[in-house]
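Please check our next protein.
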Amino acid sequence: MSQLNPVNKSLCLEQVCAANYQKLLRLIPDLLDYRDTATGLAEGSSTLHLEVLERSPYTLTILLSHSFKKNLEEFLEPAVTIRLYLDLRLAEVISDHARAAVAKVYKDPGLSLEIMNYKWRLNYFLQKWLDHCLNKNYRFRAETLRTIAIA
């Protein structure tokens, strides 16, 4: 996924996660206020979908994906699950459409180098994807159900 291989991956991973948090808030300015789903539109580009999966006082877990249509069917890729650490102002990829969650892949904490490499690849990909989305000028809006007032 990425050919970039920094020497101090731990420090670089923290910096990427901090940058990704800021990029997510630039891409989706009302992100912390959304409760369910939202869509992002950009002229000439596929739709971005946001789904809030979990919310706690210190974290927010979201699913972010592009929507593509192929043969009258819709599929979502890359379908990246991201956990935002609100108090630390970090955003970390938990999993994506092609790879399982880090905790499912590496159950042995003794494999710290492999775990770090896996996390690095996921989060570096998110950084590049967010840059792409920001360059496309996506604008998000919440998807809410409208209630009809009966007079």
User: Anything to note?
Assistant: The helical segments are 9-27, 102-105, 112-135. Confidence is low (pLDDT under 50) at residues 144-151. Strands lie at 37-41, 47-55, 59-70, 73-85, 90-95, 139-142.
